[in-house]
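Bump. Still looking for Inorganic phosphate transporter structure tokens.
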Amino acid sequence: MDTVQVSIWVVGTLVFVALLFDFMNGFHDAANSIATIVSTRVLKPHQAVIWASAFNFLAFFLFQLKVATTIGKGTIDPSIVDYYVVFGALVGAIIWNIITWYYGIPSSSSHALVGGLVGAAVSKAGVDGLITAGVLKIVAFIFVAPFLGFVIGGLLMVIVSWICRGMAPRKVDKHFRRFQLLSAAAYSLGHGGNDAQKTIGIIWMLLIATGYSSSTDHIPSWIVLACYTAMGLGTMFGGWRIVKTMGNRITKLNQARGFCANSGGAVTLFLATAFGIPVSTTHTITGAIAGVGSTRGARRVRWGVAGGIVWAWILTIPCSAAMAAIAWYIGTLVL
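Sorry for the wait, here they are.
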């Protein structure tokens, strides 16, 4: 009886830690959804985070759970998953998120979680604990997602510039202030749809491994609802340290450029989520913003800032993996 009670306590604690990570994911990545509409003054910051968090949650009703399935079954061998692996993965990801948030670095919460899973799994079972094809697909999209965002965002900017070529700038801004609300809503839907599902996959993996869920095909509805809620609440509190970097340091945005950046990012996220590919919303919107800026000439993009962000992308998986390995070891001693 005591063993069962302890097991329930440990699992409940880890579910709480997973939801805390989901909250921090929304908090850390809020800048991805709101930076453009805040920097172009379409909405005030407190209005923007409420707008974004609402659409984060509404993604609950729109997307299939393909990304959750990829995380739950496609990154590490399910047979090695236990309390310690999940604990190490979550702690490693959370610590990396706190560090990058503190320094205002727009890194990827998604890849921090993947790095955490990799680090904890390798610590327990070596490289044989990894599902290589799944991990490599996620690593490939470190480059594919921002490239798609760059191309789609830049293409949309070219189309918008051509359509609006004879319009007065003030009239263009007036129209795109409204359109930016729609594009920010679309991006927030994509953000919720892709990112919340990663934590859904972690909790589902944990419950299957510990015997609290017998279904390997159906994810309990309470997990889905809890994760989307945590993501939305995190976004509502907003990671303000990163907004300035995303909104103006990469390139200067106006209403039309902000609309194209968010729209390009949203299209990329919708495509990735439809195919069950966990991608970084941070990478995606950074690529889209750079793509929009590049249509005005390469000098309009601050490539030094973008380069610094790319270094954070490269370091995220190995750093969070290392932290997760340490957390896994500590977990085996204290849990």
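The radius of gyration is 20 Å.

Edit: fixed formatting.
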